[in-house]
Predict the 3D structure of the following.
Amino acid sequence: MSGRLFVIGTGPGNPEQMTPEALAAVDAATDFFGYGPYLDRLQLRHDQLRHASDNREELDRAGAALAMAADGAKVCVVSGGDPGIFAMAAAVCEAIENGPAAWRAVDLTILPGITAMLAVAARAGAPLGHDFCAISLSDNLKPWNIIETRLVLAAKAGFVIALYNPISRARPWQLGEAFKLLRDHLPAATPVIFGRAAGRPDERIAVQQLSQADASIADMATCIIIGSAETRIVSRPGRLDLVYTPRFMAGGNR
Amino acid sequence: MSGRLFVIGTGPGNPEQMTPEALAAVDAATDFFGYGPYLDRLQLRHDQLRHASDNREELDRAGAALAMAADGAKVCVVSGGDPGIFAMAAAVCEAIENGPAAWRAVDLTILPGITAMLAVAARAGAPLGHDFCAISLSDNLKPWNIIETRLVLAAKAGFVIALYNPISRARPWQLGEAFKLLRDHLPAATPVIFGRAAGRPDERIAVQQLSQADASIADMATCIIIGSAETRIVSRPGRLDLVYTPRFMAGGNR
């Protein structure tokens, strides 16, 4: 007997940003696996069970969810944002690759969600309007020298850079180092957007220049967007500045 | 008098992937600007007006929407996917920067949506589970040599690469050239995902190896995801292969 495994994203936390198909998956499932604060975003019925775990136990959590689905249950794995961006979908795939054959037979449905950089970009203007990249700043998952190389190549390529997992108590210096490194490759006035809890009541959006960007205002829940040399700021009297990256670069065919 | 301007995304076209806040904006607005096929995704009332335009007239469309909002109307600019990713939000910001002062006073709300690469990734597994970039392959908007440079730097950086606007009748050769170029920098077996109309009834997801990737199966509505050297394929008897990029790289702190 094989049950069903949904892997969903709640979006950044505003319930109005969660898709109807993700809500339908929540309605259909009986058992929910995820980091506690993400499970807290769901309105579960009394007959639905929470299996909360710490946010650094992704692979164990994926295995537990797969085992239960392989036994016939309807299971939902819950990420914040989009499950495919630095989140649980890759952990579930990895668990399937390395797990028992029965896990490959599980009916798996991954449903996309609004990832943090999209929500932050929308609040700031359109900083991701041109080519961009997304980098996790966690050196728990890859060596720091790889992260440095990627930051430099991204700046050279002219990508806007979205940084996920910028800082935590265990990783206090990485974001400051990233700013320092990028100052050698990008203009001093390059806009840096700090987007925390976009779309939630406790939202904080701040824009600083790269030359003065202050890593200490970021926390675990912050997504950082660093402009390219093309990124512009539009001031609006009485309103927040707009930050956007033009679609067009000189030399295109029109 | 100043009205209101919403800039929304419909997601890739499955109505179940459109957020409640975007639907609420549609409900609140009276006038809708966008490319016709995107406007067709909305269920409008008889008192709501469509202003459809061709998909290459973004800046004129943004200006027309801003002018109407500045006159007091409740206006909605509609993109497919997410309005901030190679779509209308940047065109609206650009029009504000270069337009009359009254446009800066317009109450502007940009709402995020599910962008194509997230929907395609979810159908394929978790190819965007590690660092990645998104590049528009349109050389209408930037010179082709910039696109080539970015592709090579992205491959060198180890980014998974999502390609938007891969091909059109007026741009038939760019995707094939991109594959050719990337073959010099990535393993022959690198998975290439062609995702068309993800989540819609006419969805087509195909996975090929980079060495044999066939640009002619893509069209305007296709989003391409090219793996990194780390991207893996998990076969599942009787089910589609899963394509995923592991969260972890050898050398991380755990």
About this structure: Chain B has two domains: 4-110, 116-244. Chain B has a mean pLDDT of 96. The longest strand of chain B covers residues 4-9. The first helix of chain B runs from residue 20 to 28.
